[in-house]
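Researcher: Here's the sequence for the chain we discussed earlier.
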Amino acid sequence: MNTLSIIHDFLRRQVHPGAFCIDATAGRGRDTALLCRLAGNEGRVMAFDIQERAVCETRALLESEGLQAEVIQDSHANMARYVSPGTVDCIMFNFGRLPGGDPKIFTTAASSLPAISAGLTLLRSGGVMTLALYYGKENGYEEKNSILSYLKGINDRLFTVLACDWINRPNDPPLPIFIWKEHG
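Model: Thanks. This is the structure I predict for it:
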């Protein structure tokens, strides 16, 4: 059991055919592919990443699996430039760095907080957002602490936030976080 397996299980229960999903941090494209399979041919998936390598790998994976998504080389902080508010069923984030990528390139609070904020406006009523929060090592704890602090201040009448912690695992395991936009 790990953070991504818990998030993927959650998404399998929440995302249905026809859904509009965003993978805000495409990375190697595995989460994008999962969202494509869950949303099905009737759905729509967009993926964002700032790294050309990540965009190329995501497109290659999707092509090899016969899946379709709009893969955009841009910051997750700019999602709202591409999507209308209140239209997205699911947004998925993996904060940290690209596994096997340049350890000097990683997400920071400077773009992650605006991305989460934008994502909250993009979610439709009943929509969900997941965050896998990798921290420690090269990127330290500043982003983790900033995100957790930000999430504590989100209006509890509009959103429910569940942040989980691995209390018996060493070495800064990534945190799974779930956000639901209330029906209203």
